[in-house]
Amino acid sequence: MRSIFGVLVMAFVMGSCVPAKKYNDLLAKEQNCAEELKKYKTSSLDYEARLKTAQARAEIMQKDVVQLKADTSTLGNKYRALQAKYKQSVSMGESFEEQLDKIKDSDAKHLARMRSELEAKIIETQRKEDALMAAEKELKNKQILLAEREQRVKELEEIISRQETAVKALEMKIAQALRGFENKGLKVEERNGKIYVSLEAKLLFASGSTKVEAEGKKAIIELARAVEGDDDLEIIVEGHTDTDALSSASHPKNNWELSVLRSTSVVSIMTENTNINPMILSASGRSEYHPIDPNDKAKNRRIEVIIAPKLDALFELISE
């Protein structure tokens, strides 16, 4: 990687035409960068979609918990009502038995009728007792399901809360490390669970150049040192340009190449001057197509370092 950049810099200084082999190597390098960008953009979109799915499932589970609580309360009321009716039926049965004893000497028809009524009451009492037992069983099942759903919601909320806390802490750490570059074209902010460090081109590069200036190099090194040792991150370095077309016949020949080469220059400084894990880094170029201010070209010429925590624990819980 270092040798390729050396050749590119020499080519820019000499202003000569690039030999075919080196040009092809550069094209291959650009293709690799584009493929790697595509892979990380796909990965980023997938993680964002899965995070939104997790948050949606947590909201659905919370609604289920509210519904289960309501169902549990309703079943409890039905259970108590059935208990009262059951006791009333038992009392009425006892009363009928007493009446039956009193009319044992009555005529057979009256006795048969009383027995029939008593049997009907006994059957009704048994039916209510069965309904009471079924309601009690359903109530217990609802309570178990309610406890399980509450636990799942609690686990999801704890993981999301830990992630948000970690992002806030990392944002503060990065902002503290880059405090010396305030009002110099550097901004740190948190959006959608990710940290965006935006460095204007004036802090990093001369016009049309891919070589990072001394002041910009200090900022990049401080940023890399703030996150080195934390392998639970994914870091994408994006190069952005304005809409002004490049007129040079040598490389970079257009804004796509310029944005890619600038982002790879930043990644090289990170890996060569700190112990940051290269496996969590990726470099990409977005040319002129993602401006932040259509009326201010200087703001659009920038490097954005996007730092996102890995969400493996959350996705494992969802998959379970």
Automatic annotation (TrEMBL):
GO CC list: membrane
Keywords on record: Coiled coil, Membrane
Any coiled-coil regions, as ranges: 108-173
Residues spanning the signal sequence: none
InterPro entries, sorted: Bact_OuterMem_StrucFunc (IPR050330), OmpA-like (IPR006665), OmpA-like_sf (IPR036737)
Alphabetical list of CDD domains matching this protein: OmpA_C-like (cd07185)
Entry-linked SUPFAM superfamilies: OmpA-like, Tropomyosin
Domain of life: Bacteria
Sequence ranges assigned to domain OmpA-like in this UniProt record: 192-311
One Pfam family named in its UniProt record: OmpA
Protein name listed in UniProt: OmpA-like domain-containing protein
Protein source organism: Brumimicrobium aurantiacum
Lineage: Bacteria, Pseudomonadati, Bacteroidota, Flavobacteriia, Flavobacteriales
